[in-house]
Amino acid sequence: MSEILWQPDRERIQRSQMFRFLQRVNETFSLQLNTYPELHRWSVQELETFWELYRKYSGIHFHHPPRETLSSLKLPGARWFEGAELNYAQNLLAAPSDKIALFSKVEGRPLTSLSFSDLEQRVKHFAAALLQLGIQPGDRVAGFMPNIPETVIAMLGATAIGAVWTSCSPDFGPQGLIDRFGQVEPSVLVCADGYFYHGRPFPVLDTVQALVREAKHLKHVVVVPFMDPAMDPSQVDFPETSLWDDFLKADASQFSYQPFAFNHPLFVMYSSGTTGLPKCIVHGTGGTLLQHHKEQALHTDIGPEDVVFYYTTCGWMMWNWLASVLAQKAAIVLYEGSPGFPDLHALWDLIDEAKITVFGTSPKFLSQNIKSKIEPSKRSDLPTLRTILSTGAPLDEECFRWVYHHVKADLQLSSISGGTDIISCFMLGNPMLPVRCEEIQCLGLGMDVVALDSKGHPVLNQKGELACRSPAPSMPVSFWNDPDSSKYSEAYFDRIPGIWLHGDYIEVRDSGGVVVYGRSDATLNPGGIRIGTAEIYRIVERLEEVMDSLVIGVEEDSDLRVLLFLVLKNGQDLDENLKLKIQQTLRREATPRHVPHEMYSVGAVPKTLNGKKMELAVREIFQGTRTDNKSSMSNPECLKDYEVISSNRSVKNHS
Fold it and tell me: pTM of the entire structure?
């Protein structure tokens, strides 16, 4: 059993919302549950009862209660809380009006804040402006924005009228943006004129213009002059373009929140597959809010006095998760810029500046601090900080120990894991439980998660594939443009009918803790941002020098290193000029996260007898695991190139 690094005392346990909820369960159903494992077991065995109780316990405002809790246990196809109606934005804006709702920090600029009253007024003006444009429930509003208050306002304004919000971070290039927004055909685009990163400005209006030329259903563009307050809206060549302040002049005096169905579309998220365009995942209003509420109130113990930060862009599901924290009547902290500018103390200093109690980060950031020998505890005692959250990759032993030795000894370090597909977590923290080295503390309440071995049997204390055996409210309500649900079924249920396979390897330990080992499919996950390999292929293979390509991710240094293998035309060398061209093209057309860390020239790409690229076979070579699927390969001899490269990398990394 892993070493315990931190243990909550009895008083902290009994003050926690998780403990109070356990007591409510016992009182309501005359039970005698004493431990979290007992509570979790009850929550999955009595799935409908648990979620109906939590719906009422949460205090989420429903305009109409549901006719039924769950239509069936069928996966896919189960429908939650049919007949229930609510408004997501209204629930996020219900705190006392004079309380701080959000803090905002942009690198190089002072910290600012907005009260719940100010935030709600701006949300209502944005919503009223959308209504004046004729935007209807179900229409899409797209954000191509930095992580600033205007983005939260636009999202809440859109969802307040039942429009569907979808967003990408501003470092996306034209192709990456068109691949996503082009599928969902937004009626309104909210964009900034650029963003700042590591002390440099990055204009984006050329990318906006490329999207506008392709967006046939676009009615209006709203521009936030983030870089240049004096910008002219005519810089965007679209007849219906407004600056942010002008757009918010709409009369909101008659605005009122309208209720929408529990499964009404709220967000479209993008989770890239390994073939074709990114998947457009539709998440429902009630399922998203209810799941986030459970995770934030019970598992993270967030309440009205908390100030919650997560370092994220607006293209990652953790941004949506952070926004939902407002439903706890807590304050959130937005940060726009590099986490290392002007140095790695920037985010640690922000804890004291904004009085952050819950600090969200990634293993990559923690590893960077370790390598740079940063010791936050020598700079401040961080008196307000009580919890650190980490996601995006597995958290290793070195990071666990560094936090307790060099950040703060008395805090809860909660590694959490889930994904875009469920816009939430399968496993996460727990204020009632100890923190064990390298383990996520527990499985989430109501999440019937197991590790399956190669025969599909649940296993304890050994590596298996993450599977969820019962419906959860935050599972997608659909995929976009998937009328028969075939894409949805293929993504999660085709291999084992009725079981959600998430694409991660995990180990569930008899202590109740969980270890995540990384992806079990070919999806790339650098820094927690999921990238489909097909996105890279579409761009790279358009280059005249490239005949074919293959890309994999190798887990190293608490993150994923992306390796790109290229089959080049005869006589073409993979020299520095070609590498630079590939890097610049991917950065320009997609995002900086699509740029590989390493590139190699190979003779051929391994393929199946049907011509599909075999990324997993190559990844197994670089991870030192056995490749058993050569019989299905049309050209197994080509693997020798990859074996040589892998061997040379190993020698280099250990020298």
Answer: 0.86
